[in-house]
Fold this sequence. Notes:
Layout: E1 14-15, H1 17-23, H2 28-49, H3 51-62, H4 66-94, H5 96-114, H6 120-134, H7 137-147, H8 153-160, H9 162-178, H10 184-192, H11 194-201, H12 209-215, H13 218-232, E2 240-241, H14 265-295, H15 320-331, H16 333-347, H17 349-367, H18 373-401, H19 407-424, H20 426-435, H21 437-456, H22 471-527, H23 536-550
Parallel strand pairs: 1-2
Helix pairs in contact: 2-6, 2-7, 2-9, 2-11, 3-4, 3-14, 4-5, 4-6, 4-19, 4-20, 5-6, 5-7, 5-10, 5-11, 7-8, 7-18, 8-16, 8-18, 9-10, 9-15, 9-16, 12-13, 14-15, 14-18, 14-19, 14-20, 14-21, 15-18, 16-17, 16-18, 17-18, 17-21, 18-19, 20-21, 22-23
Amino acid sequence: MARLEPAPESDAQTFSVDEALEKLPLGWTHLKVFCVCGFAWMVDGIEVLLLAFIGPSVRCEWGVSDAQAASMTTIVFAGMSIGAVCWGAIADRYGRRLSLTLSTVVILVAGMLCAFAGSFQILLLLRLIVGIGVSGAHVAFSLLVEWMPPRVRGRVGIALTTWWSLGAVAEALCARLLMPTLGWRYLLFFSAAPALLLLLAAPWMPESPRFYVAQGRLAEAEASLRRAAHQCGGTLPAGTLARGAAPLNDAGGGKLGDLFTRELRRLTASQWGLWFAAAFTYYGSVLITTELLAADSCGYRSTGDAGGGSAAGQCTLLTADDYDANIVATAGELPGIIITFFVIDRIGRRRTIGCESLVMAAAMLLVIPCLSLPFQTGALFVMRGAADGLFQAAFVYTSEVYPSSIRGLGLGWCSSFSRLGGMTTPFVAQVLTRTSPGIALGLYAAAAVCLGLIAFTLEVETLGKPMFTSVDELRVELDKVRSRRKTRGTWLELRLSTADERTGTRASKLDTRASKLDIRAGTAGKGASTSRTFGADEFDAHASWHSALSLPPTAR
């Protein structure tokens, strides 16, 4: 057991949060934060993914159109877009723990009330409120990565997202058990129940020491780290906790303008585009899985199977086989997360996101030919795994690239743009798929390719780097990256210029040699009429061959 010692009063020796976390062994504090934050992700995942299952039943009960059913998903993402900014601001000003607790209360109350909605309009209103609560998931992610040392931060961040995938699989299983017999209201009620367990566990969760440092509350930050050292059986570095580079004017959270300073505007724009495309494709893959099975666009369903009591027209319920295929496709998220877990700290965040984007695009295109139901299910399996893996890798990257002083704000706005992608995708997955499934899948594949291009062109690779505490630290890193790019560009220009000079010099020498050949050929013609003259075509061929041999390999 670690022996608690009072902090030295001398300011001569100090340590940073990263140095303290790097020295601590992984222990009870880390496990506690991981489990509570993971359960928060499971709760949020359940509330989002149930939308894929209740849509067909709501269509049948209230006779709503495809566009109205899609709006039920859109309204949830509208609430998530609103809540993301709110919870991010609360997290930066009042703490990650309080923000997460309040968002859980909203999910619990509004989620259970959805089961008693008497009309489609009331259901939409309640799902809007649920969406506001669900957007607090990014706060849990921030809290976790801020407690983790740099050596395991990426892998633990990805491991956290397995809770989301577990929630997705659990929701698919619950839908398989409850929907055919009890109906969609029971599914809504029981899906909100896990939020109660999360609410009971929230008080046991420690606050982030990085939040305290960003607020200038160094005594509380050091006390939190010393409690963690006591629980984990480790010791802190000698000295006292340093303020680091977190300036006083950063305390209390940032402003939107902080994301659009001259140095950060490119980073922010790329992050917003990344998150929009990631959400558009991921939630699209979730919704289109159910829609392809329900609509039976490829004609796999046996003749006369009406889907377990489907109504005429647009009312088509899922069959038992459809639920089973959906469970298999949803289970693809688990290997996707596992693969991401192993590669994100090997090839980096940018390459992980980019490669998985291209895999997802290929899987979506393979669904279009309608080769067979097992082949379609396999392609959907790969699609869901790649989509979930890249989305979680994006969470890791954004949580690392934004400094502590504006991390909640940056993640909040990124989350809002992801919700815009989520608001848009139902009209492709749930409306366009009903009439033109091939076009819908093609749009998603194109969006995945664009997502990959954004990922490969991100400026900063956060693999193995300490998390930034202030905006100034991020600016220094961006300046280094841009300086290296400028140096490489200047070096390339010099190489090309040197190659041009060498080519010009050798061409001049070649002209001189050609003139000498002309003179010699003319002299030989006068002296011996029987001698063969050097033909123009032959000379051109000889000169071209000689020129090619004279050029350096890079100029050829």
